[in-house]
Specification:
The complex is a heterotrimer of chains A (353), B (179) and C (251). Chain A has 353 residues and is an alpha/beta fold. Chain A has twelve helices and 15 strands. Chain A folds into two domains: 5-235, Rossmann fold; 239-350, Rossmann fold (3-Layer(aba) Sandwich), CATH 3.40.50.920. Chain A is globular and about 70 Å long. Chain C has a seven-stranded mixed β-sheet with strand order 2-1-3-4-6-5-7, sandwiched between helices. The relative contact order of chain C is 0.15.
Chain lengths: 353, 179, 251
Amino acid sequence: MAERVLMKGNEAIAEAAIRAGCRHYFGYPITPQTEIAAYMAKKMPKIGGVFLQAESEIASINMVYGASAAGMRVMTSSSSPGISLKAEGLSYLAGSDIPAFVVNVQRGGPGLGGIQPSQADYFQATKGGGHGDYRMIVLAPASVQEMASLTIKGFDLADKYNMTAMILADGTIGQMMEPITFEDEEIRQYDKPWALTGHEGKRPHNVVNSLYLKPEELERKNFERYERYKLVEENEAMWEEYMMEDAEYCVVAFGIASRVAKNAVVAAREKGIKVGLIRPITLWPFPKKVLEQAAEKVRGFVCVELSMGQMIEDVRLATNCKRHVGLVCRSGGMVPSPDEVLAGIENAVKGVY
Amino acid sequence: MKTTQILIAGFGGQGILFAGKFLAYKGLKEDLQVSWLPSYGPEMRGGTANCNIILSDTPVGSPIITTPDVLVVMNLPSLQKYVDTVAPGGQIYVDSTLIQEKVTRTDVEVFYVPATQLAREAGAGSLANMVLVGNLLQNHPELSFNGVDNVVNSMVPPKKAAMVELNMKVLTIGREYGR
Amino acid sequence: MAVVFDKPKSLADLPLHYCPGCPHGIIHRLVAEALDELGIEGKAIGIAPVGCAVMAYDYFTCDMIESAHGRAPAVATGIKRCRPDNIVFTYQGDGDLASIGMAETVHAAARNENITIIFVNNAIYGMTGGQMAPTTLPGQVTQTSPYGRDVNQCGWPIRVSEMLATLEGPEYITRVAVNNVKNVMNAKKAIKKAFQNQVEGKGFSLVEVISACPTNWGMTPEQALKWVDSDMLPYYPMGVYKDRSAAKEAK
């Protein structure tokens, strides 16, 4: 077995990206994710890759757009305000149907907000952010090991479906160190016949484009894109179930909130409350089925979020509002304590939502 | 099942994060489950710094410590801020060179270690953090003192090789103190 | 019978959508001729802007990509850094390059990215129907400067070539025009050189082409070409503003 090493979550992303075959990184400094850029700046020149600090987040996502169009595995990373600036590029990537890998190590918002951990970009990541009809695959790691494994997975999904895969992490997971092992994984290569390589007179010219002035044509493109998205929804949802076998109550949380929630679930079990946890690993596609099934057997849900309550809307939709959904939330960079989550679970048991 | 939650706090520049990293690496070497979470951002530069280390023989849940079993403090504001959060029966390590105040709680074990003075006397004024760590190791058999040299070696960059010996020296001083 | 005039291979055999009398067609042709003559069409990757030339991706027969407004130099950077052996160029207007995309332009130049930029300056936003551009002349009437550009209120037009030439980074910065045969011949030379520089790995080369917009200037094509001489060129003088290699040789 590979050696266990201690690594920061941000560094784990960078190392995993390199292992996934990414040789091009374009970024712009912002707390709390700058370790990714620093790691890339150190490593890329030594392995024949490119690290470039762009003049802005806007420029860096457009460099990603160019590099991806050229057929490369490429990434950028930022934190909340920087992702807002990248939203334009995310929309163009989606409109051109080309892959990209983007990391958001979230901090509190809105505006310049703060720099402490947050999950308040859930809406931005899963519902849009940029303009137009599009989706991104959104992966929510809850450990340093998952920062790495979901990075490798993200690059693969991006290439598989020609869309952007985003890691939606937070300042805590980005900054913390945990032991991690890197197994030698086989990295799948995908044909990219659409890539801009120079046609050398051997094929008609390739055009990477998102402009369709005829509405019929643009509509057809969007319909086609959503056919592909449907496949993603059917095949790629990921989640973890914890103590759900006999659960009468279900906590739903992702990322760092799920770690806190696990502590609370254990504490509640010690008090005799039959409670479990469903942790969405993909936020889009949202693991609707498992929640729909859980709604058949549990009496209530409790969402735990580092936001004013964003994922809770998807939980209500997935469960068709069949059960009450309580909310334990902190915002602006605050993290709920296990006791606060436990209180939320106890409220659900009392029927207080 | 045994889990130890350690909170180290002080000023930026006192090696708070390094001390925490050392404990995390030591835990890793002992095949424990480990998490290390630093405070981050502008407050790090000259302000207060702290880090959360969890060592466990089962997977670590939340890496954020609200009730530490062990508190290591290197300035007065940190003692005042965290003293009441320590779990009953827990331990507090105080750099008594820098903090004159005494802990009034009676349900915790308190170790007053003149770490800064001991480090200075050893010619390693900046390593008071590791004196405290050495003292902590004395009371934590799950981490043992064996193999600390390997950990120090792996943490000190080759350019600062001279620091390896100094670190070992102050760790030992810390271990011996109060014995 | 000998063919005396033909379409360049690098230009698709399509009707261009540009307005009557618009010099974009001439400039497209000059770019295509340069690609043909240097034999680099098969290696070329072009970046179309947002603006009148947005559909240039259909007109050039090399691989093409459509960029967001102003971001073409960043997109070009991404491509060129991945594929240094390809020839990467952008084709941008004044709103795109000198207003919304100024940061991308300046920084690509500062980094001396080995790319070629064709910058078409016609002192107005064409595609959106004739609004004030960063290059609109003082007093010039547009839809958004209906009383003439008031420099006290909206500032002065930007001389991009002069400004970029102050940077250490770029290799070659020049301004040409296409309002008469002589100027077109000069423009052709400059554009070809800007591509040749990239082939030789010399770095960032930008050709500012003073163009015209008869439709939005409210002139006949002929009047517009005369207005270039009488009003545009005095404010935007033609000339080579930076040529690092030539300067080195001269020493």
